[in-house]
Amino acid sequence: MKKPIVVGVVDTQASRAALAWAMDRAARRKLPVLLVHSVDSRWLDESVSTNEVVRTAANELLSKTAAYAGELEPSVQVKTVLFSGSPGQALRKHSKGASMVVIGTGHNWPGGPVADRALQIAAVAVCPVAVVGEQDMTGRRGIVVGADGSEESTQAVSFAAEEADKDSQELTVVHAVLAPPLIQRVMPASDVAETVLEEERIVLAETVAGLAENYPDMVVHQALVSNNEPGEALLDAAANATLLVLGSRGRGSFKRLLMGSTAHTVLRSLPCPTVITQVRRVKLTGLNG
What we know:
The protein is of the alpha/beta class and about 290 residues long. Helix content is about 40%, strand content about 15%.
């Protein structure tokens, strides 16, 4: 059974833009779509009539959205779910059987600004999470992915490469490394600075190693950026891209945090549809102890 694309639904233009993107993807990938809307009972009073009114309105929203989805892509199977709980709980639950979760931007998502809400959902989802804005996608080309040598970014590159291959797009792998302040101020042209950059070139080369063998017809660009923060470098690289891909975390100073400053920077100024991938843990067998 094919895993559906799960779309978080709210009554906004941004949400409809995300739905349109998800429906287009579903049609191209021949996948079903599951529309999920949540009613957070924590914000309701205890009266039965209030709950009925809210649920009736929520079901009407889902019906209207499903009808719109059918108009966009008649060939795609669409189902709906009304969930009792927070959006994060809803999308966490349904991400377990999904190929991707898709949400739109906008500041009226329950729970805070889009960057915070998107990162919360990406933190708990068990599949890739796409955050989709309202950018004009006309004339855009190429897929961009951030890389830093971590396991998370290596798997993000694999995801991006598969996407680029399926959609006949060129792939740009961006590794941004900003030299420590001491080196920038005191030794900008020193052997130390060049050694650091050479090590990062090796990291980038190792990250893309194997792509040519797996995708011989795909054009892959490597970009080592040494004069900008990773988030800003990715925003620049993806300004005219069709898709930006990020790993769930990197190798920075706060590795224990599921999401870091790079994802915050990107989601605050979303340049294009952006996918945050999740790490797929490999189960080892045949080991003693």
